[in-house]
Amino acid sequence: xxxxxxxxxxxxxxxxxxxxxxxxxxxxxxxxxxxxxxxxxxxxxxxxxxxxxxxxxxxxxxxxxxxxxxxxxxxxxxxxxxxxxxxxxxxxxxxxxxxxxxxxxxxxxxxxxxxxxxxxxxxxxxxxxxxxxxxxxxxxxxxxxxxxxxxxxxxxxxxxxxxxxxxxxxxxxxxxxxxxxxxxxxxxxxxxxxxxxxxxxxxxxxxxxxxxxxxxxxxxxxxxxxxxxxxxxxxxxxxxxxxxxxxxxxxxxxxxxxxxxxxxxxxxxxxxxxxxxxxxxxxxxxxxxxxxxxxxxxxxxxxxxxxxxxxxxxxxxxxxxxxxxxxxxxxxxxxxxxxxxxxxxxxxxxxxxxxxxxxxxxxxxxxxxxxxxxxxxxxxxxxxxxxxxxxxxxxxxxxxxxxxxxxxxxxxxxxxxxxx
Length: 420
Hints:
Blueprint: H1 4-13, H2 33-36, E1 65-82, E2 90-93, E3 100-110, E4 115-131, E5 145-161, E6 166-182, E7 203-217, E8 222-229, H3 244-247, E9 254-262, E10 267-276, H4 282-285, H5 289-292, E11 310-320, E12 325-334, H6 343-346, E13 355-364, E14 370-384, E15 402-419
């Protein structure tokens, strides 16, 4: 227990450098270097002290350990406006900020042969765009445009082995969110709170939810898992004129199932299916068509970004080359959360990545520690608008045409682990 004060101090320190990122929608593709190297697989394959971020039942399976990690995230986001009466076709780069550093931290300890506790601190997700040339400038907007959404989870967990097969776990998800928007003041004329749409500085909020989990070691080779996380209520009062329901911005309910199969003593195959209910959060899932039909921004049933619910299939393989070296690879694929009709608002939030390819490795050191690293490529994806800019939106219309949005990502991470 001598490490516990250090553990809590590290968790507090990680609050400061929170970065914004987007992978599966605006959730991270995985948590912890080992999971991220196999496309985020981890519901039935816990491997480090970040296990509770995916499935809190895994807290009982990873032993006594401390994991510290850092991820360098490099998104490439851009947009086009085409066929619009208010100006020529143009392309816009949203890469005003190119790199983000995202730390994570995990600690687990067995209290008895059947019960373990843990603490995971990690970036759940986020979104960032920064356009030096404002894509909405032709419609009357001025200055640089963009948004920055950041989500940090602090998740204490407890897991209990019911018997040799079944393990249950629960984590408290304390979620800290931070948001700001710039350069979109032109939409104030179509808001229930015109002064609270843009350029209000950073706003933050804290919400609390639960994550539940189960793993079942059905045979020595086969393990199954399941997990569910509740919706976490959130609100950005400074932007109550932008987000539906007076600034509401809940973190969506999500759940998943997983399988891990030891194909040989050295090789494990694993897969997860994750479902994220973006469409159930009004500020994210409501269609922008509500605005064009006269429903103001920020109202109880106001417009949002029109995102669909997201389902992700994650596949991973890991192979122990020798006692010191384990290598990993993964692939994930998801449906497209952003419909073609909703690209006009999603110039600000182009969370359109559908596929990830990942590789990584862990090296066990003579000291007993572990050094892990991974690289993930979010394959570039473009969503081309279809009827996304209305020609007749009042007062002077928007001139028709379409917005196209695109995103590509490079993600590089390392972690160091102590076992005790």
